[in-house]
Amino acid sequence: MNRTTLSLIAGATALAAVTGLAALTAPDAAGTDTAQAAAELPVERTSLMCPAPSISDLAETSYTSFTPATKGADGDGTAELLSAGEEPAGGSKDKKADKPVLEPKEPGTPVTGDASGGDSPALLGTAEGKFAPGWTVQETTEVAAGTGRGLQGVNCSAPDTEFWFPGASTASDRTDYVHLTNPDDSAAVVDIELYGKDGALESTAGEGITVQPHSSEPVLLSTLTDDEQTNMTVHVNVRSGRVAAAVQALDDKLGGDWLAATTDPAGSLVLPGITKDATAVRLIAFTPGDADADLKVRLASPSGLITPAGNETLHVKAGMTTAVDLGDVTRGEAGSLVLTPTDRATPVVAALRVVRGKGDKQETAFIPATKPVGTRATAADNSAKGSTLSLTAPTGTAKVKVTASAGSGGGTAVSKTYTIKSGTTQDVPAPVPTGLKGTYALTVEPVSGAPVYASRTLAKTAGGVPAFTVQTLPDDRGMVSVPEADEDLAVLQK
């Protein structure tokens, strides 16, 4: 990255963009409330990592890149996705030697690329300037047959230093990998901890895993322990460096999907967007602290918050993974799970395993607990049919603006505004671009009211199997808080 002379405030903004932080706050200066002097500016650089999509020769993968048009974003910029694992002599990746999988052209219009077979690599992505704020890349894979057959989808994610994955498994009918991708010039060192129904599992193989620079390492969870655990929580802790992490959960009979990291441990959690026709829903929860957690379990339905019969509360023992089967909890209606403390708040992490179909025609997807939409969130790779947007406002009524972008092959963007009543979940009729050609992106922006949580489901019937994948929509981290220009030097010098 070329460096130019920056003011102190511009340097602070760039730092927040490079590290992926959603906000940058300066130290309090002599009791002054600097938060009141903060301004929102677009981030200047964003990094995203896409895991290797599949080991199946029958896999067909598409990548969709999209950046929402953002007011105040730089007039210039670039964005590209490159294959991981190629590093020339000298220690830095020679981007000219590697043809990008895709290169976005302009914010506001999606760009697609594709790959086939089981040798497709992980991808490293960087966006700068006008392409950085809210940059979203969706990886969607269709596997025709075999373990994990069906539709698998994941949002390519930013690097971090800690991840939680409740819902993984080492059971005999599951093949679960945790994919670790290192975007940096130096090696990362990672510990993988496993927690089953009785607590931590003995494993030395998960300690000190080295992920080489600009490379990705898939780790088969069953090689880390001899214990077969149907429901397990995976904790990825990075000792040095940064990685992006995701779990690929493949089932012999129930298909498979990506399990994205849950939000940070918290006393209350929201898991949005259980499909209307779910035939089986399993809640997996874990508390990393020393205290047990007691949670009230409620379903945000189209008519309001209801308590599932027989599953009114959930007791989660400290350091142990707890799972409960909720059956067809949505009963043909849109729904989101809301977990709140019955008394004392104890931080927990949680995810849902959702199954559609019956018999040998079943398919699985996962919904991790997620953060609210915040300022803006985006889901790419939507089509005129097969895309469902789910919105929930568990604590109060909210008004939300949803924009359908131009299509990747043509079409004009359109927007609609929806009101989500307090305590409800709505599968909204998502707008479709006028004259759509190709795929498009959906951007969700809260207008007023209480916090909103969202997810997007892609569905496709293949060989009689109701294939699907669900992605949650947390804030896209496209904006960063910085001190006002007239106070930045005084604040940062203190």
Describe this structure in words.
It is a single chain. This protein is mostly beta strands. The protein has 2 helices and 37 strands. The strands form 10 sheets. Strands 9, 11, 12, 13 and 15 form a 5-stranded antiparallel beta sheet that branches. Strands 18, 20, 21, 22 and 24 form a 5-stranded antiparallel beta sheet that branches. Strands 5-3-7-8 form a 4-stranded antiparallel beta sheet, with no helix packed on it. Strand 11 (188-196) and strand 12 (199-200) form a beta hairpin. The radius of gyration is 22 Å and the shape is globular.
Mean pLDDT: 88
Q: Determine the number of helices (DSSP H or I, runs of at least 4 residues).
A: 2
N-to-C CA distance: 29 Å
**Helix percentage:** under 10%
Oligomer: single chain
Kindly estimate the percentage of residues that lie in beta strands according to DSSP: over 45%
**How many strands appear in the DSSP assignment?**
37
Radius of gyration: 22 Å
Biggest beta sheet summary: 5 strands, antiparallel
* Class inferred from helices and paired strands: mainly beta
Low-confidence stretches: 1-37, 87-97, 487-494
Choose one word for the global shape: globular
